[in-house]
Amino acid sequence: MRQPNLSDIALFAAVVEAGGFRRAAKRLGMSPSSLSDGIRRLEEELDVRLLNRTTRSLTPTEVGARLLERLRPALDEINSALNDLQEDPQHPVGSLRLHVPGIARHILPTLLDGFLTRYPGVTLEINLDNTFVDVVAAGYDAGIRYEESLDKDMIAIAIGPRRQCFMAVAAPSYLERHGTPQHPSELNAHRLLGNRFASGKLATWVFVQGDDALRITPKGPLISSSPDLLLAAACAGHGILYTFEEYIRPQLESGELQPFLQDWWKHFEGPYLYYHNRRHVPAPLRAFVDYIKAFNHAHHSS
Length: 302
Prior knowledge:
The protein is of the alpha+beta class.
């Protein structure tokens, strides 16, 4: 068997990806006949049929599909290497897709302002979604999560505040009517505003003091997956809310919400930007990671 031409292998991958010679030829800027010649040459050199051709469709044979599956990472690596030659690390161009939980809307604005100003060639697409997804399989470049839910093969970079906590709060009018709880166990007798995850699971409230931990299942006038609705209900005096400090900081400062049970609030480590541990990192993501590291360093040392 003669050693096949690497460009013919790339042509084969392009034809399968495009689903036909005509579409692939258009993408590659070559004639369908020369593209067909390249595939025929490859099949002769390998002495196997790689494509099932019918008048309506074109699909890889079993052997062709197997070959493509093995070659895909190598072809991607070659494309990445060629792209790297054309990339200017100081002026990256392209899109950066991030999958982040709702809480990140309070972390990102400060970061994004500087990043978008510094890298005008980067288009950011941010999906705010509290569900857990495989970011790579879903087509994202990176995501934001908390440490306990990170996979082992991910690279993680600290982003946002390094210590966060859940705060128990209520409107002064609610506390005047129902009294201020002095211990988490008293919450069972109160009207609680509960958060339901997209998965359908109701978020349990966890209170911690030393070695003691209490778990409360919120029961009350409103359960919602919308933090904004829960916040509005709390401000209107309909019940107690237990949520991220970042969500309610403006209402705390204005006095619309009043904190209590401070000694029992649950504290935890802040979130991370994470991405797959692969050799090639696209230029927009590399720029974002470098920017976050510099941002962290500036704020940590100031």
